[in-house]
Amino acid sequence: MGEHSSDLGREPCPDRIVEDLGGAFGMGCVGGFLWHFVKGARNSPRGEVLSGALYSAKSRAPGLGGNFAVWGGTFSVFDCSFQYLRGKEDHWNAIASGFLTGGTLALRGGWRSAMRNAMIGGVLLTIIEGVSMIVQRKWAQSPRQQYIQQAASNKMMEDMMKQRKAQDTGAGGLQRPQTATQEQGFEFR
After folding, report:
1. Cβ pair 159, 151 in contact under 8 A
2. What is the separation of C-alpha 110 from the centre of its chain, rounded to a whole number of angstroms?
3. CB of 76 within 8 A of CB of 17?
4. Where is this region: Disordered (predicted)?
5. Most buried among 59, 98, 103, 144, using CB within 10 Å?
6. Is the pLDDT of residue 14 over 80?
7. What is the mean pLDDT of the chain?
8. Which runs of consecutive H residues, i.e. helices, occur in 87-179?
9. How many domains does the chain have?
10. Which of 122, 117, 120, 116 is nearest to 93 (CA)?
11. Phi/psi of residue 169, each to 5°?
12. Is the whole model's pTM more than 0.90, yes or no?
């Protein structure tokens, strides 16, 4: 990992490619099914709306899922490559990966198309990563806030321990009499 690990819940890089590819395929299939279901229902003749919608959704959703999978897999390959080459995981890896993914997938259309789509991919990922960074900063606690919260938690624990110790020892420091469950070794606290 690197010094700027942004998501500790994600798989390590070689496995991440397969995970992102599958996730993108699933997302594309579900979204494609919904999109083409509505589109098929609108374009079907009266009386065959449901069957037309289902036929359209069933036949076109896997294709859109495949397109999403290609994009997600290519993006993950570039992202993992940048993480390996740079030695850290940060927002710049995702932005560069979006740029290269957009360009690579449009390369069949020529250099002009590849550059245009690379710019679009880079700009979109810049927006996504910028919003992500703003949200992280808004919801993340400052070191001072973390210290105050930890100090309050420690104080509360100390108070609870003192209270428990006071309950365990009766007046004058004598032990409370044991109950039947405590004598048998079963102690519930």
Report:
1. no
2. 34
3. yes
4. 162-189
5. 98
6. yes
7. 86
8. 91-105, 111-139, 143-168
9. 1
10. 122
11. -105, 130
12. no
Q: Which two tokens stand for residue 123?
A: 């700009």
How many CA atoms are closer than 13 Å to the CA of 129, on its beta-carbon side? 19
Residues in the chain, overall count: 189
Residue 189, amino acid: R
In a domain, 161, yes or no: no
Closest among 84, 36, 83 to 58, alpha carbons compared: 36
User: Would residue 47 be called left, alpha or beta, if left means φ above 0 and alpha means ψ between -120 and 50 degrees?
Assistant: left
Q: Is 184 a member of any domain? A: no
Judged against a pLDDT cut of 90, whether residue 80 lies above it is answered with yes
pLDDT at residue number 179 = 59
Describe the crossing of helices 111-139 and 91-105 by its angle, rounded to 10 degrees.
150
Give the domain range for residue 32.
9-86
| 156 found inside a domain | no
Distance CA 97, CA 187 (A): 58
pLDDT of 188 > 70? The answer is: no
**81 domain-assigned:** yes
